[in-house]
Amino acid sequence: MSEQVTWAPYKEKLQELLEQLQAQELDQHSALADLRAGSTAISCRTWRSEQAEKIALGTIKTAEQQLGLCMIYPAAGCDLPVYVSRWQETQKQIVFLVDLVPTVDTLVDEAYRVKYIEPMGQSWDRFASLAGIWPEEDDGVRAVCSIIYTAARMPIERQGQRLAALSPHTEYLKSYADYARQAGTVVEKAKQAEIERRVRAIKATLRINAVKLIGPMAPEHTEGLLELFF
């Protein structure tokens, strides 16, 4: 029998920060809140704000592991990046990814890179010394990530390391909340089309990766959860 684990407060910590976005909760997904299927517990919430088309946050827990996801997609005409947080926690290890995924080509759009990506360099440097820092292992996901994504396969030997692993997720979300307060409006039709195309591509790529994570933990609710997050 597995040793009892006190899971990291993933959903609770991110939810506290999401309240800064002054978002309105979406009722259409309320049926997915606190679902239970066998030994699996699912807890999810979704919101919308002036800057965000959808904010989705949730966890799936079993006796052996906790899976956490948080996604924030920009509203139409908004130039914000996509906030991505993925959390796979077991008794002995946490595998995670957190990023602000750009919605334009940052090699071409220097102003966007300077506004949203380069300021995150300090956070990236700060978390580079965390135990288990490792490149994202999914080729497709890595291809859509920014240059400042943080990913790790962190070994857990004591409870405090779980909170340390949470730090990148909360810090990136704090930065996102600051960005949301100064988000720009896109008026050029060509740039609007580029952002919409890139957001669709990001969703599709992350959805493929999420199937492999959600499916084994909540097979009866996989499609509903994929709809919620992507």
For this entry, give a set of tags.
single chain, 230 residues, alpha+beta, 8-stranded antiparallel β-sheet, 7 helices, globular
Radius of gyration: 17 Å
Shape: globular
What letter string, H or E per element, gives the SSE order? HEEEEEEEHHHEHHH
Report the average pLDDT across residues: 90
pLDDT < 50 runs, ≥5 residues: none
Annotation field: number of helices = 7
Gap between N and C termini, in Å? Answer: 35 Å
Class by alpha and beta content: alpha+beta
Oligomer: single chain
Largest sheet: 8 strands, antiparallel
Number of strands: 8
Helix-residue proportion: 25-40%
Strand content: 25-35%
How is this structure best described in words?
- This protein has 230 residues and is of the alpha+beta class.
- It is built from 7 helices and 8 strands; from the N terminus they run αβββββββαααβααα.
- Strands 1, 2, 3, 4, 5, 6, 7 and 8 form an 8-stranded antiparallel sheet that branches.
- α1 packs parallel to α5 (160-181) and α6 runs antiparallel to α7.
- The chain starts with 9 loop residues before the first helix and ends with a helix.
- The mean pLDDT is 90.
